[in-house]
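Exercise 7. Given the encoded structure of a 209-residue chain, write a plausible sequence.
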């Protein structure tokens, strides 16, 4: 009788031990969630979708903590950890999607500013090419040409900034290029007016007839 009771207790203990193991930790799922989080960060989520990324990171930390806590228990249950892992992975994916959308909008806006700047630079370049030189305007034209070269350099820097996804710098450089180009264009008009006034002043009266 005692032997039978002992055997029964031993069987129950063995069953409890098996139940206590609760299966293997969801390590692969946790790693997949971590990879999704890393992909979101690599895409620029910390900058372009900070709230979404922070939410994903927070849930991932909870999931990781839940897994580690259950590992230490005799009777393990990873159900809650699995739910958190799934939530973290979904939130990481959402953060990456939000990042791509935000980057697309920022790039489109920057390219619009660059396009306007490029038009202004081209207009100023045409004005310079057609501007008369002489009669005291040489210095003005040369200075305007140097200024326009600076605008062209800013425009080039803006395009490079877009390529590196630094859209704030792209907007700043393009805006500076546009402003300088417009100033050059105005300067050319003033130089042309000054040239015409000098020509008029120095033209003999009999040539005006």
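Solution.
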């Amino acid at each position: 009788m005692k032997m039978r009771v002992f055997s029964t207790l031993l069987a129950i203990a063995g069953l409890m031990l098996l139940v206590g193991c609760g299966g293997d930790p969801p390590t692969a799922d946790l790693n997949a969630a971590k990879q999704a989080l890393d992909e979101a960060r690599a895409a620029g989520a910390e900058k372009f979708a900070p709230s979404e990324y922070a939410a994903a990171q927070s849930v991932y930390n909870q999931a990781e903590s839940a897994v580690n806590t259950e590992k230490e228990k005799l009777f393990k249950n990873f159900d809650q950890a699995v739910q958190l892992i799934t939530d973290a992975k979904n939130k990481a994916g959402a953060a990456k999607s939000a990042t791509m959308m935000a980057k697309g909008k920022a790039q489109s806006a920057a390219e619009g500013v660059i396009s306007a700047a490029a038009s202004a630079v081209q207009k100023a370049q045409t004005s310079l090419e057609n501007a008369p030189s002489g009669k005291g305007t040489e210095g003005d034209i040369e200075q305007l040409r140097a200024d326009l070269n600076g605008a062209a350099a800013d425009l080039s820097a803006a395009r490079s900034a877009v390529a590196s996804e630094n859209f704030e710098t792209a907007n700043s450089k393009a805006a500076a290029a546009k402003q300088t180009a417009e100033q050059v264009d105005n300067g050319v008009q003033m130089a042309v007016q000054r040239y015409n006034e000098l020509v008029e002043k120095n033209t003999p009266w009999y040539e005006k007839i």
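Remark. Residues 107-207 form one domain. Students should compare their own answers with the one above.
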